[in-house]
Design brief:
This protein is an all-alpha fold. About 80% of the residues lie in helices and about 0% in strands. The chain contains 4 helices and no strands. α2 packs parallel to α4 and α3 runs antiparallel to α4. The two termini are about 20 Å apart.
Length: about 100
């Protein structure tokens, strides 16, 4: 799988994770958790930090655009930090388990 394929898969994952989150969770915080877990799983499977951070950033943009209301917009930096931490941790986990 080339880096271009991983980036495209990350875009699809980010979009699909928001759809899955809207089905599984009712609150904005619950949806952020679902998307964060899915980004972690994706990062662990591809073990590519750039692709994982890209997927996390796209997922964050979609979360802010569709799930966070105006009164919850102050939680956006926290959601971004959680997604980037999940991307980094998933990448490390994926690289350590492949050896």
């Amino acid at each position: 799988m080339t880096s271009r394929h991983r980036l495209a898969a990350g875009l699809l994952l980010a979009t699909a994770s928001c759809g899955i989150a809207s089905l599984l969770a009712e609150t904005a915080a619950g949806r952020v958790v679902v998307v964060t877990v899915l980004v972690f799983v994706y990062a662990a499977s591809v073990a590519d930090l750039a692709a994982a951070v890209y997927a996390g950033a796209i997922a964050w943009v979609l979360l802010v655009a569709f799930f966070l209301r105006v009164d919850q917009i102050t939680h956006a930096p926290t959601a971004l930090a959680a997604l980037m931490a999940a991307a980094a941790a998933g990448t490390v986990y994926g690289r350590c388990t492949r050896r």
